[in-house]
Amino acid sequence: MILTIAAAVFVFGLLVLVHEFGHFITAKMTGMRVDEFAIGFGPKLISKKHGETVYSLRAIPLGGFNDIAGMDPDNNTASERGFCAKPVLSRMIVILAGATFNFILPIVLFFAIYSTLGMAKPATEPIIGGIIQNMSAEKAGLKEGDRILSVDGQKVTTWTEFTDKLKGVAAGQNVLLQYKRGEEISEVTLSPTFNEQEKRVLIGVQSSIVYESKTLAESFTLSIEHTKEITVYMLESIARLFKEPEQTENLAGPIGIVQMSGQVAERGFIPLLNFAALLSINLGIINLLPVPVLDGGHFVNLFIEAVRGKPLGSKAVAYTQRVGIALLLMLMLFATKNDLVRVFLK
Q1: pLDDT, tens digit, for every residue of 315-330?
Q2: What does the pLDDT read at residue 40?
Q3: Of 236, 151, 240, 157, which Cα lies nearest the Cα of 201?
Q4: Catalytic positions
Q5: Element (H, E) at 320
Q6: 31: which of 84, 133, 153, 286 is 20 to 30 A away, CA to CA?
Q7: Nearest Cα residue to 101 out of 283, 254, 238
Q8: Which domains does the chain have, with CATH numbers?
Q9: 214 and 115 in contact (C-beta within 8 Å)?
Q10: Confidence band (pLDDT; 50, 70, 90) for 247?
């Protein structure tokens, strides 16, 4: 439990810090007055004023904000330094900066991993690198580090041979595995289960990982390519939500992310950094959706202002924001429902 909470605070804190810093630094660079830069919500735990800005850490580590003067045109206390008084291009830069920094963070994290450890790839040896919870391998007592020697009496020397032999096993059919743990050789019988998402039988094991060293130049190129690949995959996944409504069952909310953070943290700090990188890309994409109250919605309003030559009326903005809040609340409730089902009913 303590590890789960610590991992969730680390992941949420890192993502929010980077996102809000993007808004903060570009607001400062474009001459806007920032009254407060806060990580978290609720009561202040730590607060320090430096120059004209208050920097604070708050009690609930599930968000953060920048209090940029003049966000509300009817309450601009900063005159020409207020957000609303700046050119449209400056305001667009500030609005897009949060999501932009969320795409920069995974590049930095991947580069740090590749340049120090190398690039992870599956090992060829039939050694278990991870056990998936609540599946047959865990229930049978298999553990990380076990070397698979044979499947139903057929010897295996590589991970590919091991998985190929499992492909011929039907769901619910018993399979005998011989494995080596330390110096002791043991046998265990288990039954694979059919996974609807992957359309194949699984016993719940993952291969071990080895790292291939990379130069700094290779690490930088791979970091950009990997971030791009994940971004494209996530965009395709969002598109599938509209084509295949049943995919919405995979949506996760804060409870699910907290749970996943703890599970990933159990595997080590590097997997947790990878998880943070994935969530950062996801946060960047979600924030760019053209939904009122999200950064993408604010950008659309600014684009309309640039085309019209004047901002939208306050009534129109208020109406679209109410619609946006309603949509986000419905999405959050649905995702939370999925979380509760996964945690308590599965």
Answers
A1: 777 777 787 778 777 7
A2: 87
A3: 151
A4: 20
A5: helix 314-345
A6: 286
A7: 283
A8: 2-117+252-345 (no CATH), 122-211 (2.30.42.10)
A9: yes
A10: low
